[in-house]
Amino acid sequence: MKNISVNFIIILGLIIFYSCNSSVPKECIERADSLKQQLDIAHKEFLAIPYAEYDQIHKKVKETNAIFKTHIFNIKDETFKTTFSQYTDLEKEYKRILKRYKNIAEEFDVSIKQIDNIKEDMKSGALNEKDKIEIYLNQEKAAMQYLTQTMKDLFVDAEKQKNNFLQSKEAVEKFAEELVKN
Fold this sequence. Notes:
- By secondary structure, this protein is mainly alpha-helical.
- The chain has one domain (24-181).
- 87% of the residues lie in helices and 0% in strands.
- The chain contains 5 helices and no strands.
- The radius of gyration is 29 Å and the shape is rod-shaped.
- It starts with a helix and ends with a helix.
């Protein structure tokens, strides 16, 4: 009888020990939730970037450039030549910006999926070691910080190019119209 009681206590102790070790620490779940919220906020900010407007500027510049890119050498006015050169550079700049935008969009999708997978693995018990959870969450936090900074840099660059476009647009379009007439 004493032997059965000892075995019962050992088995009960193992069950309690195992169940305690297999549960995910509450602070890890809270940290994952917080990280997900931060990522969602950053993603909403990213989606608020006026991609369509930048795409329209790119198309307009590309269309205008096609009309008179070959005429740059015939322009005598050096000030206008500089304006024109800056305008033609906008096509390349916006091509880069739009490509970066698409890459950032893909990275946001991957990060959102990663956080969701970590949370799901914690809930299912597949991921229950605090050290591993911390490593994964730190990696995602670093990725999110990188994405957020990259997104801000993209927006600043796009707005700078938009201002360049607006400054040179009128003179360049007027010149393009005159070329088409002749």
